[in-house]
User: Fold these one by one.
Assistant:
Number 1:
Amino acid sequence: MALAEFAGGQSVSIAGQSYRGISFGYGQAQANARTQAPGQELTALGISYGILKAIPVTAPVYLSGFGQRTGSAIKSFLGEKGVSAAASATTPVLNSSTEIIASFEPGSAIGLQLMIGDLGISSIGTLTWMENGRFVAFGHPVLSKGNVALLATGAKVFRTISSSAVPSKLAINTQPVGIITQDRSAGLAGRFGQLPAMLPVEVQVTDQDTGNKVVLKSSVILDSDLTPTLAAMAVIEGLDRALDRVGAGSARIDFEVLTAGARADLRRQNLFYHRADVAGVAIMDLLGYINFLLQNSFEEVLPLAVNVSAVVCDDNLSAVIADAYVAQDTVLPGAEVDLSVLLRPYRGSLTKITIPIKIPENALPGRLDLFISGGALWSEDESEEDGILVSGAVNFAEAYHEWAIKPANMHIIVQYTPDLIGEAENGDVQADDVANSDLQPRRLLTETSWFVQGSRLVSLEVADPAVE
């Protein structure tokens, strides 16, 4: 006989003897040997084979609904965390959860899911023990994360598939039945009847060229390490299905992330272009913001829902800042000057964008530099660590504000600050004048229809009104 892959935690009867808590199998070996749960010695069954190599039975997770690209990315992502993953077919839902719980007994198949819906990530093991609504299962870890909040489901086993290595079972996850709260080396533990909070992710994508429309609805477990990437993979999968290819193109992304009490809701629109993989870059805003919510160092703020709407096309909707100038290079404090920015769209004619610049009433005489850049350049230069915006924020509200005002790729950004410090050092301005000034760095955003790249520097002179 051989011990099947999903036998972890199961009571197995061999030659009239019951062996509970199976946690190891033997790859490429005659399977007359087994090991029990951690802390129990290795036992040979009937025949001694000398020294055998014990392979921990860590249940793989199975992916359903994902394409080749997203499936491979998730396998790699989970593999870095010591979790193996394999492709699987989308599975049906069977009996109601109450019927499933009533039918449970030690030895029953039980499942867990990291993601449910049109896209799924699941695993199946064996129920080892249950009492008063609590249970222990699997006999080995899945994620090895300790305290967790994973979805427990029922499971239906159709048959055991023989293998010269470690055999497996043909099985499916069924209805949610409870919450898994512990993921330890000895197995999983949890409670029936209570379900974990999960993050609904809805993705709607339209291919402007073909008219192809894709809608995906899934829910992801809430975990600071896993949720951002799994939610982002759901969006990439929707984009890949609509495009039916991987390659160049443009994508206009509208997304909203809803949070408890609406205290950190974010609604954002952005335009992306990439000459090799537009879907791969189009998720960067969403990935970064969910990372920020779940991993910020200030306080816990859990997302409640993610909604993404995207329109994709083959066109190159990029433009480069070709030039920038002002009509007059000398201005008085309080005046308004028109900044002209010339954009050169991809294989298109020059387009002039006029941006009015207000010179502060209390601007000091001297040179004033206007730094003009495309939003795409801002995104490239922005300093980020693990998707979390690095800033001088001292609390969550300030950090959230950074995201709320973050420029988008289709913006022309104008930044300017009067050169007060340099003037003070030259003795033209007293230190008190600088300290009392209300002049602060200013940033103007002007939206365009392009993915704007490039930058320019324009200088003008603020005249002294007394001299005029």
Number 2:
Amino acid sequence: EPDPLYEETRLRENSVLGSEKPFAWRKLPKAADRCTHLWAATLSADLPIGRHVVTVEEVDMFGKVHLAQREFSVRKPLR
């Protein structure tokens, strides 16, 4: 899926520019159909309350391994 922040920025720019021409700057290009720098995953619905770490490992086109970790917390519902 496209990068949602980029798409929002592009749509906002188009609404500001409207149909005015010539533009004072170059318009942003159309967002790519597939964003390669954002990752999404489905987490288990029964994760225990507390701190957890998600690890992402990626191998680039040169075979180099990149590893990233992010901590997140599961809290009890507010209700």
